[in-house]
Design goal:
Elements (H helix, E strand, L loop, with lengths): L13 E11 L4 E8 L11 E8 L2 E8 L4 H7 L2 E6 L7 H5 L6 E5 L14 E6 L4 H12 L8 E6 L8 H10 L3 E6 L1 H4 L13 E6 L1 H14 L2 E6 L8 H4 L4 E6 L2 E6 L4 H7 L17 E6 L2 E3 L5 E2 L4 E4 L3 E3 L4 E4 L11 H8 L12 H16 L4 H26 L5 H27 L40 H10 L1 H9 L2 H4 L14 H26 L4 H27 L17 H10 L3 E2 L3 H6 L6 H6 L8 H14 L6 E2 L1 H14 L4
Parallel strand pairs: 7-8, 7-10, 8-9, 10-11, 12-19, 20-21
Antiparallel strand pairs: 1-2, 1-6, 2-5, 3-4, 3-6, 12-13, 14-17, 14-19, 15-16, 15-18
Helix pairs in contact: 3-4, 10-18, 10-21, 11-12, 12-17, 16-17, 17-22
Length: about 675
């Protein structure tokens, strides 16, 4: 089946997670238990995630190692983080006071600091909170019966009385004869160097403060030991001022020319220029500000090394300009993936007349990420007030409509006003409230009444043939009539689709599908939801009207009809105008986010209109922006649209927009066109 391939939980590679528990392990060490959403792809022991929470009205991100193995996540559905609380930090103080059931964002797991596949002995050297990746590695190694291959020894350095997780280490030691550990302090037991010479033939893993890392690295060189590391303090920086006289250069960022000097990092100067930049630690550790330098020369402030080749990865926080015309693409990662099937698909796609070539995917990703980052920083009280105001208006419209329907006998115009008011309430409930909330646009408010519990799936429209990718069948000859019927019964069609009723009621199954909910439960949900709607609109309120039964019944019927026609029309205009492309699931494998952005541009269209029009569409009249940024509050799409349009123009991409009648006419022509072979 063809679907609009929208990933509502993408959020720049982020996923939702709920805080289960927060507890203090010591005076300054904190443990946080999270339950990621089912879509989170788990992790390899030793990897880290980026955690985003709201701090003082702004979204703040920091990187944490996952302090548990994949087996722990598989069994409990939870992950845990262990961190040292820095009272002067931007995030950890807020993290210590976060309450259970709070929703946060986490990234997919990243990093290559994992247990090596080796038959050599393994030496783990941990300093302070650097114990966390080793706990995770040991858990999984023991669980998967891998630790018997060679002995594993752990040297655990920390300040007196600050060795956390000792009980867990003892439990792990009891489960594996090949695992031993020593708890050490520098004051009592001396330097880490004193313990390394006995492990020259081992594979060394070190995680901890930079001073400890440097000591281990020095010895590793002498004994030629293999060393993998993850040190979480910044490397010392080169004295910038001593390297050269102050000079001013040109930096191109997102199509803008900025003036920068050779005395400060590129990150700090971009921040001073109020440019949207993604970053984490600011010390060259977390790689959140990693990007691709397209040309020019930059210096690594930690080592003094120069990056003078094109298409080189750099980190903005530890890079400074050296030559003229330095051009940097912000937040672009080097990828070693197989070619995307999307590329081949896009080559074959019917290209709109305005589109002349494929865009620079990395540049496109960078520019659209920057637009999203800029708007994300603004999200806060105004957005919360807006959605609560819409909810209030929806409730007023609903009850006003129901009262006016009962007063219709006094004046027919009151009945008409009641129908329109009730229809408006149902439209707002569907579009502005229900749909947008399900995309997680207001999860950051931590309000259980406007919090998404799961992802919704976009409508597949298997009843209609809307592309050559569908095999033509005789029933398609009358699909225009099918479309009219679908529009009239749209609320039921959506429920049917959402409940996967095609397989529940008719036994149509997909290969390798694992049902998360039983068919009996799905049937119960489908019928209970439908029954509540039918009883409310066509039994309860009409009966309450007494002799005005028919007035209220007909009013509810027309209000539901108006809601269904409006919703189906807006959805179709956003997805199935003449120039819109559709994609199969297999077309989307191995694609980068830049390619994903491009596909969203090809697969959506906007509708022009005024403020009231946009509100009644749930701002889905900005469907292009919704496909690109599904988790951004929809009211923000209007301010994003001109910037998105400018980016599209730069890349020669078609920005599909038009008046309501233009777009709707295009939809009807498409339905008719594909009615025939």
């Amino acid at each position: 089946m063809l679907v609009q391939q929208v990933k509502p939980a993408w959020r720049d590679g982020y996923y939702r997670a709920q805080v289960e528990a927060v507890r203090n392990l010591s005076s300054d060490m904190l443990e946080v238990i999270l339950t990621p959403e089912k879509a989170w792809p788990s992790h390899i022991a030793g990897q880290h995630i980026a955690l985003t929470i709201e701090v003082n009205g702004r979204l703040t991100t920091r990187v944490f190692t996952v302090a548990c193995g994949a087996s722990f996540h598989r069994e409990t559905k939870n992950i845990r983080l262990i961190t040292k609380v820095n009272n002067e930090g931007a995030l950890t103080p807020a993290l210590s006071s976060i309450t259970p059931n709070t929703w946060v964002n986490i990234s997919a797991a990243k990093g290559n600091f994992t247990l090596p596949n080796t038959d050599k002995p393994v030496l783990m050297v941990a300093g302070g909170s650097g114990i966390t990746p080793f706990i995770a590695m040991l858990e999984d190694a023991i669980e998967n019966n891998l630790i018997h291959r060679a002995p594993v020894h752990l040297l655990y350095f920390a300040k007196p009385n600050e060795h956390v997780l000792q009980s867990e280490l003892l439990a792990l030691q009891k489960r594996a004869n090949n695992f031993t550990f020593a708890v050490l302090t520098r004051q009592k037991d001396g330097d880490v160097k004193d313990y390394l010479s006995h492990f020259a033939d081992a594979h060394w893993l070190v995680c901890g403060p930079n001073a400890m890392y440097e000591q281990v690295r020095e010895v590793a060189k002498l004994v030629r030991a293999t060393l993998d590391s993850e040190h979480f303090a910044a490397l010392p920086t080169v004295n910038i001022g001593s390297l050269s006289e102050k000079e001013t250069f040109s930096l191109m960022h997102n199509g803008q020319h900025l003036s920068v000097n050779n005395q400060k990092s590129l990150l700090s100067q971009l921040q001073e220029a109020k440019q949207p930049v993604t970053y984490g630690c600011g010390m060259g550790i977390c790689h959140q500000c990693q990007c691709v330098k397209k040309r020019g020369v930059v210096r690594d402030t930690r080592t003094g090394e120069l990056s003078d080749s094109a298409e080189q990865l750099i980190q903005l926080c530890v890079s400074q300009a050296v030559t003229m015309n330095t051009r940097v693409l912000i937040n672009t990662e080097e990828r070693q993936q197989a070619p995307s099937k999307t590329d081949a698909r896009l080559q074959q796609a019917t290209t709109p007349p305005q589109s002349v070539s494929k865009p620079d995917y990395d540049m496109l990703e960078t520019q659209l990420d920057a637009i999203k980052s800029e708007v994300k920083d603004k999200i806060g009280a105004e957005d919360a007030a807006y959605i609560r105001r819409i909810i209030l208006i929806q409730r007023i419209c609903e009850w006003s409509g129901r009262i006016l329907l009962m007063l219709g006998f006094l004046q027919p115009l009151l009945w008409v006003a009641g129908v329109l008011s009730l229809a408006a309430a149902k439209i707002l409930d569907n579009m502005e409230i229900g749909h947008n909330v399900m995309h997680g646009q207001y999860d950051w408010m931590n309000d259980s009444h406007i919090n998404s519990q799961r992802k919704d799936r976009d409508f597949g429209y298997g009843l209609l043939r809307l592309s050559k990718d569908f095999r033509w069948r005789v029933k398609n000859l009358w699909q225009f009539a099918t479309y009219i019927l679908l529009s009239v019964m749209f609320q039921w069609g959506v429920s049917y689709h959402e409940m996967a009723a095609e397989r529940v009621f008719f036994g149509k199954k997909k290969k390798n599908r694992k049902n998360q909910v039983t068919h009996s439960e799905l049937k119960k949900r489908f019928f209970s939801k439908g029954a509540r709607q039918l009883v409310k609109d066509y039994v309860l309120f009409p009966l309450l009207a007494g002799p005005l039964f028919l007035w209220v019944l007909s009013g509810n019927l027309i209000a539901n009809l108006l809601r269904n026609l409006w919703t189906s029309t807006i959805i179709f205009c956003g997805h199935f105008t003449g120039d819109v492309e559709t994609f199969k699931a297999e077309d989307c494998k191995n694609e980068t986010r830049g390619q994903w952005y491009y596909r969203q541009a090809l697969g959506s269209s906007n509708i022009k209109g005024g403020n009231l029009f946009h509100i009644l569409t749930g701002h889905l009249s900005f469907q292009v922006e919704h496909h690109l940024f599904p988790d951004i509050p929809a009211r923000r799409y209007r301010e994003m649209a001109p910037k998105v349009q400018a980016v599209f123009k730069q890349h020669g991409m078609h920005y599909n927009t038009g008046s309501f009648w233009k777009q709707y006419t295009s939809v009807l022509k498409r339905i008719v066109r594909y009615s025939f072979p």
